[in-house]
Backbone:
């Protein structure tokens, strides 16, 4: 069932764990600029997915967060755990988006660089099997792989 509140599930398909059940999407200039500013905490099942982004700051924030950097295919390219208030993360030139999560979310979900995430407002997307690529099969970027026979 799709959600109407501009939140998404964040699921680590590689580890079969959730990083967030209710992550807000920050995909406008204003929502990316404001981010988590003005909040006193982040719900344990919440987060913020900033699209596009290759780095974040916590200037003005009052709490520690975990940060997951994702490429355009939602693969984890960098991680920053326990980022303190009034900090700036290193930029990840591979990153197309960034997830701001509650402290210890990376540890609890066992997320590592190279893991593939699913981010969706629709629960059924979390159950869908990933496309299977057979050995020796050439795959072009953004091409959906179909199996024959």
Residues:
């Amino acid at each position: 069932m799709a959600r109407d509140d501009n939140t998404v599930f964040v699921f680590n398909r590689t580890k079969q764990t959730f990083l967030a059940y209710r992550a807000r999407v920050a995909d406008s200039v204003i929502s990316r600029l404001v981010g988590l500013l003005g909040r006193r905490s982040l719900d344990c099942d919440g987060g913020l997915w900033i699209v596009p982004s290759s780095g974040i700051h916590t200037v003005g924030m009052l709490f520690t967060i975990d940060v997951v950097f994702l490429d355009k295919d939602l693969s984890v390219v960098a991680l920053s755990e326990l980022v303190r208030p009034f900090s700036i993360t290193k930029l990840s030139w591979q990153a197309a988006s960034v997830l701001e999560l509650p402290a210890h979310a990376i540890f609890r979900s066992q997320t590592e660089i190279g893991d593939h995430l699913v981010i969706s407002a629709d629960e059924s997307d979390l159950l869908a099997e990933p496309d299977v690529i057979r050995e020796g099969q050439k795959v072009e970027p953004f091409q959906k792989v179909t199996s024959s026979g």
Q: What stands out?
A: Residues 7-127 form a domain with the Jelly Rolls fold (CATH 2.60.120.1140).
